[in-house]
Each structure stands twice: as structure tokens, then as C-alpha cells.
Amino acid sequence: MKRVSQAKRKTIYDLAALAGTSASAVSAVLNGNWKKRRISSQLAEKIIRIADEQGYALNMQASVLRRDRSNIIGMIVPKYDNRYFGSIVERFEAMARERGLFPIITCTRRDPDLEIEAARAMLSYQVDCVIATGATDPDRITDLCAAAGVRTINLDLPGSHAPSVISDNFQGALELTRRVLANCERELGQNVPLMFVGGRGTDHNTSERVRGFRTAHHEIGITPEEDLILACGYAPEKAEQSLKVLAEKRGALPHGMFVNSTISLEGVIRWIRRSGHYSERKPQIGCFDFDPFVALLGENIEMVRQDVPKMLDAVFDIIDNRNPEQKLVEIMPIVETMA
Amino acid sequence: MKRVSQAKRKTIYDLAALAGTSASAVSAVLNGNWKKRRISSQLAEKIIRIADEQGYALNMQASVLRRDRSNIIGMIVPKYDNRYFGSIVERFEAMARERGLFPIITCTRRDPDLEIEAARAMLSYQVDCVIATGATDPDRITDLCAAAGVRTINLDLPGSHAPSVISDNFQGALELTRRVLANCERELGQNVPLMFVGGRGTDHNTSERVRGFRTAHHEIGITPEEDLILACGYAPEKAEQSLKVLAEKRGALPHGMFVNSTISLEGVIRWIRRSGHYSERKPQIGCFDFDPFVALLGENIEMVRQDVPKMLDAVFDIIDNRNPEQKLVEIMPIVETMA
DNA sequence: AATTGTTGCTTCATCGATTGAGCAAGCCCG
DNA sequence: CGGGCTTGCTCAATCGATGAAGCAACAATT
Fold first, then answer.
1. Is the dihedral of CA A245, A248, A250, A252 positive or negative?
2. In terms of CB atoms within 10 Å, which of A23, B66, B173, B281 comes out highest?
3. Which nucleotides of D are covered by protein (CB under 7 A)?
4. Which superfamily does A169-305 belong to?
5. CA distances in angstroms from A109 to A13, A113, A214, B5, B98, listed in the order given
6. Is the pLDDT of residue B137 over 50?
7. In the structure, what pLDDT confidence band is assigned to residue B91 with cuts at 50, 70 and 90?
8. Where are the domains of chain B?
9. CATH 1.10.260 holds for B7-58
10. Is B93 within 8 Å of A83 when comparing Cβ atoms?
11. How do residues B99-110 score in pLDDT, each as one tens digit?
12. CB proximity B293 to A under 8 Å
């Protein structure tokens, strides 16, 4: 992996020698503030032409070392296995680049230690700012970064030590639950309590969604059953296993359910297929999160799609300091209408 | 975004002052070669303790600037909107980190100019190596990097100027087509030609898959129809539109089809739903690529899953120089068996 | 006692880009 | 013609980490 010696990288000193000028003139021209440094436009043009011919590429390590801002921005993300995080990352990258920032992204697979290790690595690379997305322990990341004078912003899951941008989980869950309840009522002719599957009971999003879930039940005068709330984690296998256990315990399961993520839904649908539990009548499902294939799975599934563009707009509002002192921004998710 | 002044970052000079020693001793201790530089273990322990207490983080920009290798490894990836690229990125990150490399990843949305811009940015950050995944113009990336003395490896789509790791598209497509043809025969009692939907006719993967598609037809003594091969691009809308046009032109469409990616499949399924074309009898589908929700979509869909772990093993074999002079590595995809 | 070897450090140049300070040449004005 | 101003550059210190070279102190050997 050693660099081939003949392909030595060009530096501003090489360009300076070729142009018969000094390195500082080259530097000034190439980073665009040659006007301020009173370099003549003839020399500027000449330097730019030579840099072009030589295929010069700035050495960012040297540049960042010297400057006080790196223009590097880090994002920590739990997984790449669903559309939600995929679109967050894709849009984040694009928006960062638009602003002349260089994004570095690390996937930490919901592992708290990896999150910290990733944050530490980012600090070593002199990031100006870290976005902690869906972090299991956002405040620990914030504290670590704060000690190095680096700002953080929480996305998807809130923390209390840094500004946070999240979905309006309560309103989203309320609306989603209402719809599933209504679909059940339409089919069964009566109101019945739903099941809640997936997520961690300890995380803010899940507890807010459970609150919305409960409120929707109360609105129509029924009480949600506590042992139907299965906050069993996000993994498909966990959801599958919980349903299995519950079915063994109770016999018949509720006709409708609220599923807390597409990734949990994967386990739910698989269990439904395998167990044959709902073979007579398909259950009514509401899924908090969107996936285009789920939309094609059947008409019995309602989804809300978290509003990634708005969420990232809010994140960059904070970064660009357009949103001075707001601690928590909640973005209403989009209710998908069945085509 | 300016660094808060009181939270000035600690450097090895600060640690040296605190330990009453020199910066070079601190450096030697912290990067682990203090044995070689004959630092006593007492001093080493003391320095490590102080670094710990002070929350010291190495300045990578300075470190990389000084060393001849950066241990930074770049990956260019087209999209995050499917499981295939998602798992490539996730696994790549993990494997890179295992080897002490720092991964930087850029999503270029199948835009050739962005690909080049991304490669240039990576060169500025002194990457040791670039993996070009599914690049539209891999050789241009290779040439640009080669000029800076940086190796590249192509993944998913091959190039001719650098080693490439791809799926065995021909064998995979052959096997997939065989299965769909057999499923059709079982249902219809006779052999019928299939449709091919999605991908770009100009890319190597698509043309190899078409070759496998044709070969499977010939094996059972039938001829694939040329106007049933719709290499219309990868976007869902393109697939949808192509099917619409074809249906208008021909009336009935074939009972079976080969779909070139999950992302094209999205458009195919949507069109099937909307048009009602296959309302009497579901079509037999084979999809080159895997998505867990597609697996749940119905029993009429066969999939092959590209073997991401093996592909990345091959990539790192090349990086670690265990695979000296092989130009093209083809990895057989996994035929998913319907549960 | 003189030489050689070993241990445990320190000194200093260096990587490439940035930028404050400085300087020479030309111009203008009284 | 001398002083001040502008233009168009160059010089040199600096960012933080690294490692070759060097040096002092002591031990071992002849």
C-alpha cells in the first residue's frame, strides 16, 4: 500500500517553482482569497492554469492543520438496513457538500461503545460538528465532544445536553393508531384494543409513540391492554419471538397492531406467514416508518413516513445558527395514504 | 462554528509539559512504538495516565501529514436506497475498522461528475485506496487516482484499469432464469419466453445477466424475444413506464419476468398493482437482488442475493495484497429458497 | 584506565498550507 | 524632490506529530 515513488504528489511549492513565484502566492490564488492578498489576475490565471495542468490536489491534512476550522462534519448512524436511515444519510451528505462541508459518516450498529469510539475518531479528525443519529446514549457523545469544544446535534433520538431534532412521535403515533383503530372498527363493527410491537421501552421515541397509542385508544373510550405492549427491541427476530410467546400465552391475538419500525415489521410479517395465525382474516397494521415494498404488501397496512427533508433542514438551521436557542425540534411525520 | 477558546485541544506538547518530558517521548508512547524507542515503562505508564486524565485525542491531520500512509480508505457508492448497497457499506466500514483503517464513504447518486468530484475530494484527504462501487465510469476514477499514486478497486461493476470484484452475473442470471422458466412451465404446462426488466444495457452486469437470461431460454429450446428485453435503467419509474409502453404495444405481457434489481422491482410491482394487468393470474418473477420485504410479498417471486460478505473478503484480499495479480474476481450470488 | 555498549531520553527538521508582517517599486501630491 | 499611499508580491513562523540523529549517564569489558 506504499505510495509509488514516481507519482509523488504535487505541492504548492512545486507549482510555485513552475510558475516562478512563491508558495504563498499559489496558496492565496488556489484558496480564492488572492483578491484580498492583492495578487494580480495575470499571476492568478497563470497559477490556476499550471495547477490544472499538473493535476494538483490540495493536501487537506496540511490545510486543516493550519486553519482553525476543518469544515469536516461527522454523522453517527445506527444502521443502513432501512430506508429511513438511508435517506437521512443520503440527504445529509448532499446538504453538507452544498455548504462546502466534508461529511464523514460512521455506522455504529446500535452499539454504545462503538458510538463513543466513532465519536473519538471523529474528534481526532478535527470535525467541527457531530450529528448523533438514533444514538443509544446521545449525552455521552455530547459530553465527549463538548470536552474538545465540538458541538453536537441529536437527530431521531433526543438527548438533554444538546439540541435535538426528532419526529413528532406522539402526534404521528396518535394519528397512525386512530387510523388502525378505525380500520378495525370498519371490519369488525366494534372498537377493539390494538397490540404495540417493537422498539425499546426506554427510548424517548418509543415511549412517546406508546403515549400516542394510548391516547388514541382513550379517545374512543377503550383502554389499551398493558400486556399487549411489546417493546421488545428493533430486531426482526425479537418481534417474531415476542409474538410467538404472546400467542402461546393468550391464544388469539388482537385484530390490529401498531408496529414501531419497518425493521420490526419484517419480523411481524414473517411470524404471521409462518404461524398462520391470521390465516382467516388479515390483521390491520400500522407501521411507524415507511418502505416502498411494504406499501406494496397489501392494503391492510398504514404507514407514517418520517419527514427526512424537514428534519435535515432543521439540523442545518441549527448548524448555520439560524435557530439560536431551541433545544428540541419536533417534525410531524407524513401520513402515507394508501394508493 | 468557531471553536470555544477555553476548550483548547490538548496536544502532545501539553502532555509533555505535564509529564515533565519531551513531546517526542509522548508521541512515541502514544503511538505504541516506545519499546523500539527505548522509553522506560515507568515513563510510558505515566504518560498514558496523564493522556487519559486529560482526555487527549491525537490530531490525525498532523499525524497523517507527517506519515507517508494515511490509513484512510475511501468508498464511492451510488445509493443508500436498497439493501445491497446498504450491506456493502455497513460491512466495508466494519472490515476497514478491524484493520485499523478509517473509512470515508461518499454517495454519488449515479452521477458521473459527482463520482469524479468525490474521488478528487478523497485524494485531497490523502486516502491510501479507493473502492469504486457500482461506478458509472470506473476507469475515469482509476485514472484520476493513479495520477496521484492511489490504488483503486472496482466493486459491483467492473472496470478495465483496476482489479474488479463483481457478482457472477451470468451464472446467477442463468440459475434465476431457469427457476422462473420452470415455475412458468409448472403453471402453464408449457415453456414460454420471459421478459427482462431494468438495468442499463450498456453496463457489464446487465449485459451478462441478459446473456444468462438468453442461455437459460436456449437450454430448454426456446428463443427469447428481443423486444421483451427492457434495459430501461434502474429507477422504479423507468420500469413502470417501460411496462406501460410495452403493454400498450403488445396487449398481453409474458407470464414470467426477470427483474434486474429490487429498485426496478418496485416499479414493476407498482405497475402490476395499478394496471391490473395480471389480475387473473399473478406473474412469475425472478429478481436479481434481495430484499426481505420482497421475500414476504408472495411465493411467486424468486430472488438471488449477491454475496456481499464474500465480495468484500475479495476486496480486502486485494487490499492486503493476498491476491496479487487477479484482474477480475467473480462471486457467485446466493439463490434464495422460498420459505 | 580506556574503550565499547546500553539505556533513556531530548533536539530539531520535516510534512504542506496558511497568513501576518514586511519590502520594493511605482504613483501621486504638494 | 521628499513623504505618503498603493500595488504586488515574498519571507518566515506556525499548526501538531513524527523519527533520525545525537547526547549524557552509567555498566560492562579488556
1. positive
2. B173
3. 7-12, 14-21
4. Response regulator (3.40.50.2300)
5. 44, 10, 30, 34, 15
6. yes
7. very high
8. 7-58, 72-167+308-332, 169-305
9. yes
10. no
11. 999 999 999 999
12. yes
